[in-house]
Each structure stands twice: as C-alpha cells, then as structure tokens.
What does this fold into?
Amino acid sequence: MLVLLHHTHVDTRSQKPKKNIMRSDVLHECHRWVFVVKKGYQEREEAIQTSVITKLKGVTLTNSSETGLHLWSAEDYVIPPNGEQVFFIVTNYIETPNQRLGNLIMNCVPDGQCQSDYDCAEGEAVIAGHGIKTGVCLNSTGTCEINAWCPVEYSSRPTEPLLSEAENFTIYIKNFVRFPKFEFSKSNVLETSDDTYLKRCSYDRETHLYCPIFRVGDVVHWTGHDFQDMAVKGGSVGVLIEWNCDLDKDASECNPQYSFTRLDMNQNNSATSGYNFRYTRYYKDQNGETYRTLYKVYGIRFDIMINGQAGKFNIVPTIIAIGSGIALWGIGAFVCDMILLYMMNTSSYYREKKFEIINFKYDQQIVTMGPKC
Amino acid sequence: MLVLLHHTHVDTRSQKPKKNIMRSDVLHECHRWVFVVKKGYQEREEAIQTSVITKLKGVTLTNSSETGLHLWSAEDYVIPPNGEQVFFIVTNYIETPNQRLGNLIMNCVPDGQCQSDYDCAEGEAVIAGHGIKTGVCLNSTGTCEINAWCPVEYSSRPTEPLLSEAENFTIYIKNFVRFPKFEFSKSNVLETSDDTYLKRCSYDRETHLYCPIFRVGDVVHWTGHDFQDMAVKGGSVGVLIEWNCDLDKDASECNPQYSFTRLDMNQNNSATSGYNFRYTRYYKDQNGETYRTLYKVYGIRFDIMINGQAGKFNIVPTIIAIGSGIALWGIGAFVCDMILLYMMNTSSYYREKKFEIINFKYDQQIVTMGPKC
Amino acid sequence: MLVLLHHTHVDTRSQKPKKNIMRSDVLHECHRWVFVVKKGYQEREEAIQTSVITKLKGVTLTNSSETGLHLWSAEDYVIPPNGEQVFFIVTNYIETPNQRLGNLIMNCVPDGQCQSDYDCAEGEAVIAGHGIKTGVCLNSTGTCEINAWCPVEYSSRPTEPLLSEAENFTIYIKNFVRFPKFEFSKSNVLETSDDTYLKRCSYDRETHLYCPIFRVGDVVHWTGHDFQDMAVKGGSVGVLIEWNCDLDKDASECNPQYSFTRLDMNQNNSATSGYNFRYTRYYKDQNGETYRTLYKVYGIRFDIMINGQAGKFNIVPTIIAIGSGIALWGIGAFVCDMILLYMMNTSSYYREKKFEIINFKYDQQIVTMGPKC
It folds into this structure.
C-alpha cells in the first residue's frame, strides 16, 4: 500500500499540499512517538534494584491532663521504627493508661440492655467490640456484664493535633538504585567529604537536589494539603522518586525526580480519608498481674515509591525501531489516505484519480513479496 | 506473500471454503487480540498510585489452664497492628510466660549428653537453638548445662485453634487508586452520607460491591480452603483487587474486582504450608530483673495486592494498532497458507496451482490492499 | 525497500557473499532476538503471585560491662519478628537501660550554652534532638536545662560487632510462586517425606538447589563483602529469587535462581552505607513510673525479591513473532544495504550497479524508499 500513496505523491500534485499538512502531522507524531518518546534506538532496563532507608528527626513534648508529660522522639512516633520504606508518623493520639482485664458494666452499646441473663449470651462479643459478654445481666443497670479491658477507651479524638510540632520534623530518605544490566548504580545522597552537609542541608529542587532531607510540613504542603488539617485525622502521602536515566549521556544527567501526592483522597472529597490504628504496651505489676496502656494513634503514613528505568544505545532495538518507524510512516500515510478518501468530501477528481492509480498499479511490488516468504 | 493468498482467494475457489474456515479463525483471533483484548486503540496507563489501609474488628476470649484468661482484640491479634497492606492474624498460639535468663539443665536435645565438661564447649550454641552451653557438664543428669530462657517453650501446638472465633472477625480494606496520566482516581469504599452503612454492610459481589468488609472465614473459604483447618498451622492468603478501567466509558463502569487465593500451597500438597513465628513481651520486676513472655503464634497472613490499568482513546496507538492489525491479517493468512501447503496433505492440484500462481504473480498485490482497508 | 535488496540478491551476485556475511550477522541477531531471547512464539505470564516466609535460626550471648548478660535469639535480633519478606538482623548495638524522663543538664550540644533563661526558649527542641528546653538556664554550668530521657544515649558505637556470631545464623526462605494464567505453581522447598532434611541441609547451587537455608555469613560473602566489616555499621542486602519457566518443557526444568547483591553501596564507595535505627522497651516500676531501655541497633537488612515469568506456546504470539521476524529480515537486510551503500566504501561498481537498479526500479516502490533513508 506504500506504493499506493507514494504514487499519489507523484501523480496527484493538486492534493499534495493539503494532504501533506494532514499527513505530516500524524507522521511526525508517529515518528516522535517511536524515536523520541519511546527512545526506540535504546535497549531499556526497567528491573532496577533499589534500597530505601528512612530516618526521622525531631522531638516534641505533649502534656495531657490525664496522662501527664510525654516526650515524643523518633523511636516513639515512627511506627515501625526500623527505617522502612513505608512508615507512619503519629500526629494525634488517644491514650488510655492502666487498663486491666476484668468485668465491666457495659452500658454504652446498643446490644447491652437486658431483662435477664438470657439476653446476655455468654461468650458473645459486643457488637461495638472491646468486650465479651459474661452471661450475667446486672439488674441494677439493666445491662449485660462484659469481660473487657477497663477502663474503656476514651472515645473523644482531640480536635487539635497533639503533635502539631511534627510539622517541623525532618525525613531523611536514603535511596540507592542499581541497573544490573548496565552495571550502573547511583544514590540520591551527595557524595561529599563534608560530613556536616547532611546535618545542615534541606532539599531544594534547584540548589540541593542531592540533599534528601524533607520537612514533614513541606512534604504535606507539596501534596496540596495543609499539615495541621491532615494531622487531626491522619492521612496517607506518597513520595515518588523517579530515576529516568539516558546512559548514553553522562551519569551526572541521571538525577532523581521527586513528586508528592496524597494517596488516600482526591482534592474534593474527604469521606474516605484518615489514618489511625491502635497499639498497646503491656506491663506487669509486682504481683505479676498484667495491665496495659492502649494508644489510638492518628497520623500520616508515608510511602516512598521508587520508579526508574535506564536506556542505552543498542543495535538490535535500533533496527526494530527504524523498521517500525518505516512501517508507521507507511501505515500512517495509508490511514491518512483512507481518511481523505472515505471520511472527507474531497474532490471527485481526487477520488477517481485514486482508482485510476490503483488500476494502473497492477504491475509492481510483488517481486518483493515472493522471496520474503 | 499477501498477494499469494489473496490470489488463492480469487483463483483456487475449490479450496476457499475449507481454507477460510481455518484462516478466518486465526485472523479473527488475531484481530480480537489486537483490538479487543489489547484495546490497541487506547493509550494505556499501568503505573497506578495506590493506597491501602486495613482494619480488623472482632474480639475473642481464650482460657488456657496454664496462663488463664486472655482477651484478644485487634491490637493484639493483628501483627503488625498499624493497618498495613500485609498483615498477620493470630489464630493459634503457644504461650510461655515468666521466662527468666538462667542456667538450665539441658536434657531434651541430642547434643546435650556429656561425660565431662570437655563435651560441653563453652559458648557453643545448642543445635536445637534456645541456648548456649555454659561449659559445665552436670554429672547428675549427664547433660550439658546451658544458658537459656527458662522454662523452655512448651513444644506442643494446640490441635484445635485457640482463636477459632477469628473466623467471624471482619477485615475492612480501604483502597484508593489513582491514574496520574488520566488524572482519574477512585476508591473501593462507597461514597455515602449514611455513616452507619459501613458499620452494617458486608461485601457482596452483586449487591454490595462497594462495601469492602470481609468476614475472615469467607475469605479463606473463597480460596477453596477451610478456616478451622488453616487456623491450626496457619497459612498465607492473597487478596487481589483489580481495577481495569476503560476511561472511554463512564467512571461508574470502572469497578474493583476481588479475587482470593491461598499463596502458600497448592490444593493437593500441604508439605510447605503453615505460618508461624515467635515474639516476646519483656517485663522487669521490682528488682529490675528482666523476665519475659514468649509467644509462638500460628495464623493467617493476608497480602492485599492491588493491580490496575486504565485505557483511553488516543490517535497514535490507534494508528499503530490498525497497522499491526493489517500486518497480522496478512501474516496470519500467510501462515495459514503455509500450513495448508506443507503441513496438510492437500490436493496436488492445489499445490501446483499455488506455484503457478507465484510465478504468475508478478503483477498484483494492490488488489489485496484495496479490500484490506 | 525490500525490492531493492531482493533485487540485489538477484542481480549483483558479485557482492552477494561479502554482503551476506554482514547481513546474516544482523539478521541472525534479529531472529535470535525475536525467537530465542524473546521466545516470540510463547504467550507470556509475568503477573505472578508469590508468597515469602522467612525464619532465622541461631542464638548468641553478649556480655557488656554496663548491661550484663544478654541472650539473643531470633525473636530478639530479627526485626520485625513476623517472618516478613524484608527483615533486619541486629549485628551490633548500643543499649541505654533505665532511662527516665526528667530534667537533664544539657551540656553536650552547641546550642546548649546560655547566659540567662532568655537564651533557653521554653519548649524549643535541642538541635541534636533528644530533648526540649525547659526555659531555665543553669548558671552553675552555663547551659540550658532540657527535658529528656536520662541518662542520654551512650554515643560510642562498638568497633567490633557485638553479635559477630550472627555470621553463623541461618536464614530459611520459603518461597511459593503461582502463574495463574497457566495454573502452574511451585515452591523452592524440596517436597520430601524426610522431615529431617530441612533441619540438616544447607543451600548449594548444584547439590541442594531446593534447600533454601542460607548461612548469613555466606549470603554477605556472595555479595562481595565481608560480614564482620558489614556487621559494625550495618548494611542492606538483596536476595533475588528468579523463576524463569518455559512451561513447554517439564516442570522439573522450572527452577529458582538465587542472586545476592549489596543494595546500599557500590563496591568502591561506602559514604552512604550502613543501617541503624533505635527502638525502646517501656517498663513501669511499682509506683507506676515509666522508664525504658533504649536500643540503637546496627545490622543487616535483607530484602527478598521475587522475580518470575513463564512462557507457553500459543498460536497468536507465534504468528505475530513470525510476522515481525519476516519484517525484521527485510528491514535488517535493508539497513545493511544502507550501511553498505553509504557508510562503507564499497566498489564503485557496486555503487553504480545499485543506482542502476534503483533507476530501473523507478516504477516500483523504491521512490518511496530513497527519501525514507
């Protein structure tokens, strides 16, 4: 079919300008796609090996009437503490200290009411959770007795984040990527002899690209949200580090690109947003009796995502790219012709000329086909 | 070669029906593959950003002779407790309370026997683990003395899962996906003003697709296994959420698809199945002496896997798809011919006709192009 | 363009041998690429489902002057303990026992000096972390008073790894892979009736491929590093398990391949290497006063990465591969011609012969090709 259209090139001069405008657009787009966007001449490596270590810095003091003074340092507010790629920072919490397992008079939950023990099936869990019915109905209160950790959790979430200071904590993200196929590896941390640099510096896209230290407040801000709002109910933030390396160029041009998004909601809707969970600390008194402190923590979950690919010139994909390029050229042109022929009302002259050409073409090209098979 | 077959279309009518059956099958398959399966006319986006938060609900009471009453709520039986994408639920356990570090008479393990201290190399670990030899041979028992946490772990795993009630616990999976390229995002949680909905509802493929609350027993059942069996030794379950979105259609047609598989074994073999690990809780008595409780927990590991891609019409891939479609058409036909010619015993008439055609073919092919469009 | 070269085939016999050498290289390479490397005739499945469970074995005794005897078993030195795919082994640590929250005289950090309370803004965090200023300047020492956990952490890291014995710990990696599309699944653990095998054996590429038990020291060694060096400051190691399965062959030929790399540094540079974090254990005394032990642990982070794909014969990709193969053949040949024509100084005879051909071809196709190159 290439013949077809290239002949139209030659013969149907009248259409040429008009058609070429159309066609050249598509063709150029196609070529751009194959050669520029897809870098068709390169062998690509997407299976990168990567390691991420995170470390938080910062400390804050909370002082609640019930539970007194708390000093929150990284080993407390980072969960888990072991420098993972995905971690959670406490920004708000409800503490319920000195819970002991015992019989509790249950009167807050709907399925607590009872006339007789019959209403309190033994071993049945309370819908609201937290407890198991003992099977006894307390006539005094007309509610079932339950086995639970008493006192029950204070249910009121602070409306102001108790760790509002967390806005100024800093996240240090050490990322190391390796492209095994090309035996190329690089880190996002500046290789410097100045040991104090990483203590002082703070990330800046222009001036400090290789200082991977981020203020929590900034990261949240870059996602288009406000830290103090987010800190109350919590949320989930994604930090994407992209390594797109053209290894035909110098290694110094293979740089990390950071982007920040809020993962748990879209701008307009907050129905499903928020992040919280509970954890406990268990103690034993001198009699060996177990008691515990229950924490319900709200906070921000950070997910460091690494994404990378590298490309390097290689003859085989080049040939293929050229090939598909050629094919595209023809196909693109061919499609344009079709469009021109059938979808646009072009001059009947053009139409008939076309067919005349087709007929006229009854003697070519086949040579090429025979051997090919 | 295209010519070739299209001529057979024209000339060798005798074969036509027979061949076309074969060919049309393949060709149709090829076209389906390119256009329907691969949606060749769409620009695709597979690099989705996703966030997952999980929360378990349910509480159960265990009562063992040695260790008394235990109330298991989510903060205890979910490990880690922080709402991860991969989490473990305790369904069975061995508790060894009040272990203290001390000298223990070792007599259970094979390498414990000794005639003299010479047999008990100091600092050598006991093969079975749990202890380090002190270098002393106790003549009384004829075994090495070891440094270990005493008492040693009770080695008998309960044959009935202690947390059999876990079957009725519920998993709430909040998943949020975003396709950055198309600026499209969606959650698997119903956007409703009815706050109680998510408290009452339970997932159903038909009626409650957007209620991501699953009964643990059901999830295990859907993998083709029985919860109570699995609960004894533990296991590993994968929950796959797939988002395949054709964004040319309405957003309401982009829905999550859930699938459930057991990851740690195939149906017929259980040799390598099971999931258990140990963790400890450390305490100090009033003298500052450390003691601990050792838990060996068996349970089910849930791995929430998100998988998604979106497609949207775009002119460039369309052209390419049409092109490859055309190519396939020809190639497919060509291959069929080859098959017919050489792999099938077709009439010698057909064979010679073919070759005659080939020679005779020095003047066509365009014909083949016309119809092809 | 195909015409071109096939004509040269026919007409320019003189060049044929020479050219074919060149061309056949490229073509062979191309075909190899499509059929052998890419296994073009197979339908591929890369979305594997995989489960990993890890378990460590080994125990060691540490004896520090300050903190006395410590017995480290898996539940202590593996963080997190729950058999994850990514886990950390403690090889070195700094223990700071019996910290209590209180007012501490701060004199180690630069911003501690003060003339008056004015220099000690209340609530301000100390740059070095660990504390919050109380707002009081202690004239005695001329430093700010801070709220912190006292005593502060001993800052000296042991120069010899305290858990040097960790070199002999063993890692058991149970991996299970499933290719849903082909309903094929396999494990890296030998299916044997001999229960003791997995207790005795140790991985060997030749003799014990299906014994996934690795000595920590060996794994580090295989990355090209020395365990005792790495153990001091810690590091990050990647264990890659690859499953490349040609399911047209027997299942027994689908075997795991292990490879080991250090992820946190390249051979020559150790600037950014190391892995450490802090965690705490909280206690309460008989008065309910909280105190804690702070651990700063150095160690090795293992990241078990699973990578796999399977292929099985399928007619559709086969047809496509043959097609692209044919295309490549032509294109490859075409490219070779171009190289021969324009980039190499071939005999002018050849050159003119070429053009003669080209001219001769002016009523085919070539027109289109000339410009195209």
User: Anything to note?
Assistant: The CA atoms of residues 141 and 292 of chain A lie 27 Å apart. Residues 315-343 of chain A form the longest helix (29 residues).
